[in-house]
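Following up on my earlier message about nicotinamide-adenine-dinucleotide. Here are the inputs again, as you asked, copied directly from the submission form:
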Amino acid sequence: ASLLKGVGFITGAASGIGKATAFSFARHGVKALAIADLNASAIKDVSAEIKKSFPQVEVLPLQLNVADEKQVDSAIAQAVSQFGRIDYAVNNAGIGGALAQSTDLAASDWQKVLDVNLSGVWLTSRAEIRQMLKQEPLEPNSHRYGRGAIVNMASILGVVGAASYTPVVAYAASKHAVLGLTKTDALSYAKQGIRVNAICPGYVATPLLSGEIDLGPLQKEIDRTPLGRLADPEEIADSITFLVSPLSSYMQGAALLVDG
Ligand code: NAD
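Thanks, got it. Here's what our run produced:
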């Protein structure tokens, strides 16, 4: 039997970890996928790629800015009107933001990062939880399946501060805050059968990383990583699949480190 059997909703799915998560869900048996991204043409391309490799999976590509309340509510409504429910939600969309320590950071750059990485995760998880509260559990007679499972994207920089050679202070603050949101929602909705957890990847080979940090500082991070390499996006994606699946049914409010 396959690991997943409900409906997935993934933000930031046109690239990197989000795209790899869509493929991991498809590989593990998801019935339908709503995939959302700011980049409208790229998300359509990813949708076509998934349909080609997994013709049995229904895919709905959506253009979405996760920092926009109206767009978020309407994306969730579209996914629900198409597929009837949302079982596995991954609030992954995020930006790297300014490589600056506090005294060099413009207020507008601070706000931009917080809008996407924190408010975006809150707005999407709020809409997802409102929907999950309305739906019946996927398997009413088993506590391994609740009303839904949510994974919020944090980072190793949600747990420790950023090094002085990569001083992404707004980014680190936003990711620490995602853990506070995750733990509180986990406590609020546990009794209603909604699981909420966060994932904290180390350094992953995606366009976000290559666009933000040049090779000098990045090599330092690789050198101090015991496994001695960056993660493939697929390795983070499979951990997310674990976190939404019944394999992790007793995990609630966790910040799962996947950091090599
Ligand atoms: P990526 O740049 O490859 O993908 C991010 C995707 O999010 C892009 O497709 C982008 O268009 C989309 N996006 C950006 N802003 C958006 C918005 N406002 N609304 C909707 N979509 C938006 O990056 P990635 O490395 O795959 O990052 C995904 C998540 O993982 C981010 O939250 C990032 O902070 C987190 N993360 C990444 C790393 C890493 O080393 N790459 C490590 C830890 C955590």
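One observation from looking it over: The beta strands are 7-11, 32-37, 58-63, 88-91, 148-153, 194-201, 255-258. Hope that helps, and feel free to reply on this thread.
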